[in-house]
TrEMBL record:
Residues 2-128 form the Formamidopyrimidine-DNA glycosylase catalytic domain. SMART domains: Fapy_DNA_glyco, H2TH. The lineage of its organism: Bacteria, Pseudomonadati, Pseudomonadota, Alphaproteobacteria, Hyphomicrobiales. DNA binds at H106, R125, R168. Residues 259-295 form the FPG-type domain. The gene is mutM. It comes from Methylobacterium hispanicum. Belongs to the FPG family. This is Formamidopyrimidine-DNA glycosylase.
Length: 299
DNA sequence: GGCAACCTGCGA
DNA sequence: TCGCAGGTTGCC
């Protein structure tokens, strides 16, 4: 469940259980997720204290007092179950449905903290991964080298979009999904941001830059709608889709605010539009848009 | 650039 | 049974 707002929601849910806490016991239920776990993974965590839990794009980074950083990515279906010592369950972002036998399937990593809290990583499809990197090398690591701008940090504006997209013929949809340009957007929020900006997803990305490289008004608008949709989604606790249950009120709610995503053949939610949401496939993935709000680009 | 691959589950 | 799913990678 992993675009920027969901990962940020997870981060906030993990902070009370992890920051300042020591790993007492780390149990791996299998040798790998998407990649093998690092050498001596559990031993390198056990006894170490988490000094800070941050997010970069869709990655979580837990800084340890050992000088290493635990890097975590949720892939498509990764999530955390957080059991606090007082019995509260803070599982952030979403919740898995308990299996028929009441045993959660796909619990791959169990982290027992010295405080008594237990943090369990669950990932049905195992596209997520964990890694340990020297904190000093983090920015240059394979995970973060070449990563694009953080969209909610100050700086993403029309001029940046124009500079990043200038001379590119790739469709806007693909350009916005390219983590080397802007890092943190995924399928949902790209569709939503393009809709709010009134931009057709097949528009060549370079169309947002004028001949002199300056931003078009649409570039400025897109920068604004990206930040707007992400900010609203973070405030809503992210989006929770289909197969996840809402159990204690902290699951995401932004899916109710989708204007186009996963709404093919339903009415466009733009005020007074009256159009119908369409679905196309771009680089193998669904794109949802409203042809009325987002007309094909004309040069 | 696109596209299949990684893996599992769900709904049509 | 097939198609589809919030991501990323590596190979055309």
């Amino acid at each position: 469940m992993p675009e920027l707002p969901e990962v940020e929601t997870v981060r906030r849910g993990l902070v009370p259980a992890m920051v300042g806490a020591r790993f007492a016991r780390v149990t791996l239920r299998r040798p790998n997720l998407r990649f093998p776990f690092p050498e001596r993974f559990a031993e390198r965590l056990e006894g170490r204290t988490v000094t800070d839990l941050a997010r970069r794009a869709k990655y979580l980074t837990a800084h340890l007092d050992s000088g290493e950083t635990l890097v975590m990515h949720l892939g498509m279906s990764g999530r955390f179950d957080v059991a606090m010592p007082d019995g509260r369950n803070l599982s952030p972002g979403d919740f898995y449905l308990e299996g028929a036998q009441g045993v959660p399937k796909h619990d791959h990593v169990v982290m027992a903290m010295g405080t008594g809290a237990t943090v369990t990583y669950n990932d049905v499809r195992r596209f997520g991964f964990m890694d340990l990197v020297p904190t000093a090398d983090l920015a240059a690591s394979r995970h973060f080298a070449g990563m694009g701008i953080e969209p909610l940090e100050p700086g993403l504006d029309g001029a940046v979009i124009a500079r990043l997209f200038r001379n590119r013929f790739t469709p806007l949809k693909a350009a916005l999904l390219d983590q080397r340009l802007i890092a943190g957007l995924g399928n949902i929020y790209v569709c939503e941001a393009l809709h709010r900006a009134g931009l057709h997803p097949e528009t060549p990305a370079g169309c947002l830059a004028k001949a002199d490289g300056k931003p078009t008004p649409k570039a400025t608008l897109l920068a604004r709608t990206i930040r707007q949709v992400l900010t609203e989604a973070v405030a809503a606790g992210g989006s929770t889709l289909r197969d996840y249950a809402h159990t204690d009120g902290s699951a995401g709610a932004f899916q109710h605010a989708f204007r186009v995503y996963d709404r093919v053949n339903e009415p466009c939610r733009a005020p007074g539009c009256g159009g119908t949401v369409a679905r196309i496939v771009q680089s193998g993935r669904s794109t949802f848009f409203c042809a009325t709000c987002q007309p094909a680009f004309k040069a």
